[in-house]
C-alpha cells in the first residue's frame, strides 16, 4: 500500500489509547484460548433437568404438534427415555401427565390414587434407573375437568382445601419414589403444608422445589396442549399466578416459600424472567432453577424450522443465559439435545 495513504489513514484514526487509557477489552477476546480462560459462566449436563410428558397405555410415543421433537410417552417408553437421559449424564427428570379425560373431575381426585399415571411412571423409572432423580408436580390441572391448578367451587379456586389435597398427593408421590416434590399451583401456604405432611409420613429426605414465582404468562400454550387442558380451562389463572408486571411481589412470594421450608426455588417461565432469577439468587442464595417453558421451546423450534435462526446456537445461548442470571439448573425440553452437544464438546 502507498506510504502516503497509510500515513493519511493513521492520522485520520482516533487516538484510541488516549480515549481508553490503554484499556482495550478486545485483548481478552483475541483467541479461543483467551476466551476460554476468562469465560465467566459454563453450561454443563449437570445443569439440565429433562421435562417429559406421560400418556396412558403401552408402547406409546405420541408427537405433540406444537412442540416438534417432544412426545407423550407411555410408562414403558418413559423408562427408556430415563435410561437414555441417565446415559447422557442428565441428573433428573420432571414428569407431567396427560390424564385420561374420563378420570378427571372437579376436584382432581385421581391425583390421590397410588396407581395413577404419574405414580406408575415414578415407580417404574426408579426401579429401572435408580440413579436418575424424579421430580413430580402436585398441581391439580392435569387431573381436573376444568383445567385449573386447584379445586374449583362456585367459580373460585379454594386455597385451603386445595392445599390439603396436594399435601396428601405429595405424600403419595413420595411413597411411589419421587425424589423432589415441585408444587406449581401457587396456593398460599402450600410449601409449609407439604413439608409437614412429608415429614409426618417419614419422607424427611424428599425435597421440595417450589415454583416460587410462577407468572400468569402467555408462554404456556403448547404445554396445555400436551397435558390435554387447552380446551378445558374455564376462566383464567390470574387469581393465583403472579402478574407478569410484578417483580417485588415475586420476591416476597419466594421469601414465604423459603420460610416455609422450600429446598430449591424455581422461576417459571424462564427467559422472559431472567431478572427474577437473579433477584432470587441474590436475595436468598439458595439453589435456584428456571423452567424454560413450552412457548419458549416452540418459538425456537419454529424459527429454526423456517431458517430464520441457527436453532442449535440459539438453544445453547438461551440455556447459558439462565446460568448467567444465577440459575443452578434449567428445566427444559431441550435437555436431551443439549446434553448430546455438551458431551460431544467434552
Automatic annotation (TrEMBL):
- Kindly report, in one word, the top-level EC class recorded for this enzyme: lyase
What is the reaction catalyzed? 2 5-aminolevulinate = porphobilinogen + 2 H2O + H(+)
Which residues catalyse the reaction? 214 (schiff-base intermediate with substrate), 268 (schiff-base intermediate with substrate)
User: Sorted alphabetically, which SMART domains does this protein's record hold?
Assistant: ALAD
Q: Which GO terms describe its biological process?
A: protoporphyrinogen IX biosynthetic process
Protein origin, superkingdom: Bacteria
Oligomeric form and interacting partners:
Homooctamer.
Kindly provide the name given to this protein in its UniProt entry: Delta-aminolevulinic acid dehydratase
Originating organism: Pseudohoeflea suaedae
Amino acid at each position: 500500500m502507498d506510504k502516503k495513504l497509510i500515513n493519511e489513514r493513521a492520522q485520520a484514526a482516533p487516538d484510541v489509547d488516549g480515549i481508553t487509557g490503554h484499556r482495550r477489552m478486545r485483548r481478552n477476546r483475541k483467541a479461543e484460548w483467551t476466551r476460554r480462560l476468562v469465560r465467566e459462566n459454563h453450561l454443563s449436563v449437570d445443569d439440565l433437568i429433562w421435562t417429559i410428558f406421560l400418556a396412558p397405555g403401552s408402547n406409546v410415543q405420541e408427537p405433540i404438534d406444537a412442540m416438534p421433537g417432544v412426545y407423550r410417552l407411555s410408562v414403558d417408553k418413559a423408562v427408556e427415555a430415563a435410561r437414555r437421559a441417565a446415559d447422557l449424564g442428565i441428573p433428573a427428570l420432571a414428569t407431567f401427565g396427560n390424564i385420561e379425560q374420563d378420570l378427571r373431575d372437579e376436584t382432581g381426585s385421581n391425583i390421590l390414587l397410588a396407581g395413577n399415571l404419574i405414580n406408575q411412571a415414578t415407580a417404574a423409572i426408579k426401579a429401572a434407573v435408580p440413579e436418575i432423580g424424579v421430580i413430580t408436580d402436585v398441581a391439580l390441572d392435569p387431573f381436573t375437568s376444568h383445567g385449573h391448578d386447584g379445586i374449583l367451587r362456585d367459580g373460585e379456586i379454594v386455597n385451603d382445601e386445595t392445599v390439603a389435597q396436594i399435601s396428601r398427593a405429595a405424600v403419595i408421590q413420595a411413597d411411589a419414589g419421587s425424589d423432589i416434590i415441585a408444587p406449581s399451583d401457587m396456593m398460599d401456604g402450600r410449601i409449609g403444608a407439604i413439608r409437614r405432611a412429608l415429614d409426618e409420613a417419614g419422607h424427611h429426605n424428599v425435597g421440595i422445589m417450589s415454583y416460587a414465582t410462577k407468572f400468569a404468562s402467555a408462554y404456556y400454550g403448547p404445554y396445555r396442549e400436551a397435558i390435554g387442558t387447552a380446551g378445558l380451562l374455564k376462566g383464567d389463572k390470574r387469581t393465583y399466578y403472579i402478574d407478569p408486571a410484578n417483580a417485588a411481589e415475586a420476591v416476597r412470594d419466594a421469601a414465604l416459600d423459603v420460610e416455609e421450608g422450600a429446598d430449591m426455588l424455581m422461576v417459571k417461565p424462564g427467559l422472559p424472567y431472567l431478572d427474577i432469577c437473579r433477584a432470587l439468587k441474590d436475595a436468598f442464595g439458595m439453589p435456584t432453577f428456571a423452567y424454560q417453558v413450552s412457548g419458549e421451546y416452540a418459538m425456537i423450534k419454529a424459527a429454526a424450522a423456517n431458517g430464520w435462526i441457527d436453532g442449535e446456537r440459539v438453544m445453547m445461548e438461551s440455556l447459558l443465559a439462565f446460568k448467567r442470571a444465577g440459575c443452578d439448573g434449567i428445566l427444559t425440553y431441550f435437555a436431551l439435545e443439549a446434553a448430546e452437544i455438551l458431551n460431544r464438546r467434552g
